Amino acid sequence: MKKINILLFLLLALGMTLTACNDNDPFSTITPDDDPRIISPSFPDRVDGQLPVVKEIRRDKNLSMTITATPTDYIHIQWLIDGEEVCTERTIDLPLQAGDYHLKILVTTQMGKSTSREGIIRITPLETDPQTRRIGMEYIVSPGLKARIYGKNLNGVTAIKIGDTASSPATFVEAGAESHVEYTIPSDLSEGQHRISFEDAEQNAYGGGMILVTTEVLVTSGAAHATPSQPCTLKGLNLDRISSLTIGDKTISQFSAQTPYELSFPCPALPEGSYTISGSTLEGKEVKFLDGEEFASSQRIDLQKAALWSGHHYVSWEYADGNPNKVFNLIPFDVITSLAPGTRLAIDYSIEPTAAYHKMQTTTGHWNDLPGTQAIEFSENGRHVITLTQEALDLMKQQDGFLCVGHGYYVDQVIVQ
Known about the structure:
Layout: H1 2-20, E1 37-40, E2 53-58, E3 63-66, E4 68-70, E5 75-81, E6 84-87, E7 91-94, E8 99-109, E9 114-124, E10 131-132, E11 140-141, E12 146-152, E13 157-162, E14 168-169, E15 171-173, E16 180-184, E17 192-200, E18 205-213, E19 218-221, E20 225-226, E21 231-237, E22 242-247, E23 250-252, E24 257-258, E25 262-266, E26 273-281, E27 288-291, E28 294-296, E29 298-303, E30 307-316, H2 333-336, E31 343-351, E32 359-364, E33 376-377, E34 382-388, H3 390-398, E35 402-416
């Protein structure tokens, strides 16, 4: 009997429990008021403020991703590429040309709450595709002016398309490692970043990356060093709109040559030293100077009297023989060999930021190292000073003079200290 009573008690307790769990009782649910959350995909954090590369695929594969987010039934999804909405579904499956793209996934609830993920999608070209290679500042262009793009497999390119504008005819220029296509920027193109495409005769399109269109007056090289009372040449964009330059307390308003791409003038007869160079345009605006990776309204310019050469000459031993930029050989034979033993030769150089490495060696015209010198490697602009011994001078006389060889840098000036 006792066992029966216990069994009845347990059945009664179970019945009460089951009765308590009915559909009328409240429990936790997802509602439109919930904060949105993106569960997947997960993106890496930024590094030094830069967006991470979240996916890298070949251009013959589509960008394919699926988002999982909550509250599932109360959200609106936007896939944005370079700021433009391209999809509102949970899965994106999109073909893209070669290049880097800014991807943003934005999730917004019915109550207006939102969250997002951002990163870079990198689409790589096929080996046989036309491909870009950055040499300097050629990605900065100006409406109505000529521009060029360096790279490989460019010989079949017949036109460059900029964003949604009409295609601009392109001309291929064979120049070894510096082969490129030349084209003209439409005069009515708006300022800002634009994505470009290569087009061939069959109207196939291939990604060409981004260009920055500007109407500003920009000096990209030639303003770091000069020789007092000697000609100085600046290079850049829209330089035909410069009305005056100021170095120290001297203002120059008369120029010996002036085009959209180059400006030449005699450097003022100032004492040797460091000064500030700035300028004004015909419209009364500031001239901008490239200082490192940024443009500024002024730049330091070093004036030194005993300059054997001044300019901006790129050097890479990766070029084929006969290419003028395979070596630096612009100091005349009779000038370099007339120097006295013990002369200190200072070589001012600046790096090419896109080069894989930066290395310089001073040699004779036969590529033999100068006695007492050694190769240097560097990662920023600087000066390399060598001492010319009698042995070095004799060797240069026997072997056709003086060279700077190596890779990834510009010779900006060679002076006698």
